[in-house]
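May I ask for a sample protein chain and its fold as tokens?
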Amino acid sequence: MRVIGLLSWYEEPASWLAECVAGMAKLCDHIVAVDGPYALFPGATRKPASGAEQADTIARTAAGAGIGCTIHIPRAPWWGNEVQKRSAMFDLAMTLAEPGVDWLVRVDADEVFTAVPADARELLAASEHDVAEVTMWERDTDSGQDSQFPIRVGFRALPGIRVEQAHYVVTVPRATGGRRVLVGNDTVHRAELAAPLWDVRLEHRTRQRPLMRRAAKDQYYAQLPQIEQVSPL
């Protein structure tokens, strides 16, 4: 079994990217890093890709950690926004994965694995589930009130895995037709049970971003109710 990390990034400090990749290397054998802004993100059409030095940082950090690396840099924004970009990451990873055996772990560039127990990979390999959840540590430097909660970021490499309806909804085909929901909206979907890897900690640092970047992100997410509509699957 291999673990393939999926890294979504756009315009990040080199130090953040290096720390993110180094954290992924604690769990992953290979990473697929995908650049580019969501089309509705402020300034996306003016700068549809990050600088080459950011891709270089990702590649060099992966090499130094002894893991493989595949980098995809599009020449245009992701017109389907976060749903399209995340689905593209799964598609790219599935070209490298052994279906039904390997695992895919999705991470954003403002997230860092700060704790990965030695048996994490063994637990994934032995799991009967097709989705795994870790503990998200939400760092809030404004209020000083941190929080921790489970979040599903690990997925068995199953053919047809994709993101649909909303950026957080992950599904795979059902053998009898339709879709199985691995991560969904709790009020609309019935998601499958997840393998509990709660000793794996993923630190979310978005509140430590500069104020201008945080404002741009807030502006983007304010538009999601209009572009992401969920319905039963």
Notes: The mean pLDDT is 96.
